[in-house]
Specification:
The chain has one domain: Ribokinase (UDP-N-acetylmuramoyl-L-alanine:D-glutamate ligase), CATH 3.40.1190.20. The chain contains 10 helices and 13 strands. It has a 9-stranded mixed β-sheet, with helices on both faces. Helix 1 crosses helix 8.
Length: 317
């Protein structure tokens, strides 16, 4: 097997996208099936750009679990060796209602709990966790006691090596309150070298929506880099050496607001591994996110290198 460059750990689901864009669920008559979940989509996005990406998650012992494994390996080119099977829980489903397209709603079926909440330390190779160039964790992993304990143990193995990435990934449905999320996420910041988040996510992690102040607080926690997603205002990177770089967004007609942040994450990882400067990395991330926002699906519509370079050339000409 190829040497893994990126290991993501977290949610997986079978995603069902309403094909009637702009309609409420009661009017939807057909869906497109794919796979999803933040960690899953980031791995797919990186693999689409030619990187050796692996996902650690857990599925049910059912036909949907079989589909997840098969799609990861044969459709998306993601290493699935760390996809474990829970004998008693079902693979989650997520229905996407694209009404409105810019701000879709997701209906999660993860009851009584999702298999990915039962990931165990033994489900992943600890040598890979320690040595992989990029280890990517969503902050929602800390919303569940068992999942949080496993992630803490893996981070102890990792020993804050470069690049240990925290996707701040604020998902209100996984938490009892914002206060609970802050209490769980804030103490974990010193286990990471990079954090990525938007205004809402920064407020949860460090108590402010002011992105310059949020960047200061993240760097004060010992991170090497804070990546601030500004929505319609673009992206800013702040680094421990005092660098602050911002780039504007690429404006597109939005078909679906789902998955653009994960596309950014995959392109961001590609840039890190390529050794690019901060400005180039976030230009690629912005372009990747814009491309996915202009398409219906998440995993299926992650951009290729050719897609991104074409958009960059078009906008820079």
């Amino acid at each position: 097997m190829s040497t893994i460059e990126i290991l993501t750990l977290g949610r997986v689901s079978v995603d069902l996208y309403a094909e009637q864009v702009g309609e409420p669920m009661r009017n939807v008559t057909s869906f497109r099936k794919s796979i999803g979940g933040t960690a899953t989509n980031v791995a797919v996005a990186a693999a689409r750009l030619g990187r050796n990406a692996a996902l650690c998650t857990k599925v049910g012992d059912d036909q949907f679990g079989d589909y997840v494994r098969h799609a990861l390996e044969h459709t998306f080119g993601v290493d699935n060796r760390f996809i474990a099977t829970d004998p008693s829980l079902q693979t989650p489903l997520a229905f996407a209602e694209l009404d409105p397209p810019e701000d879709p709603s997701i209906i999660f079926y993860r009851e009584p709990r999702a298999p990915d909440q039962n990931i165990e330390v033994s489900d992943v190779d600890l040598d890979v966790v320690r040595d992989v160039p990029i280890f990517w964790l969503p902050a929602s992993r800390f919303s569940d006691e068992q999942s949080a304990a496993v992630c803490t143990e893996l981070l102890n193995v990792r020993e804050r090596r470069t690049h240990t990435v925290l996707d701040l990934d604020w998902r209100p449905m996984f938490w009892e309150s914002k206060e609970q999320a802050t209490e769980a996420i804030a103490p974990m910041l010193d286990q990471f070298t990079i954090a990525i988040g938007n205004k809402d996510e920064c407020e949860i992690a460090v108590g402010t929506r002011d992105l310059n102040l949020a960047a200061d607080r993240l760097l004060e926690a010992g991170l090497e880099m804070a990546v601030m997603k500004l929505g319609g205002d673009g992206v800013m990177i702040a680094t421990a050496d005092g660098q602050r770089v911002s780039v504007p967004p690429y404006m597109v007609d939005v078909v679906s607001g789902l998955g653009s942040g994960d596309a950014f994450g995959g392109a961001f990882c590609h840039g890190l591994l390529s050794g690019w400067d901060s400005e180039t990395i976030i230009k690629w991330g912005n372009a990747a996110g814009a491309i996915v926002a202009s398409r219906l699906m998440c995993a299926d519509d992650m951009p290729t290198i050719e897609d991104i370079t074409a958009l960059l050339a078009e906008r820079d000409s």
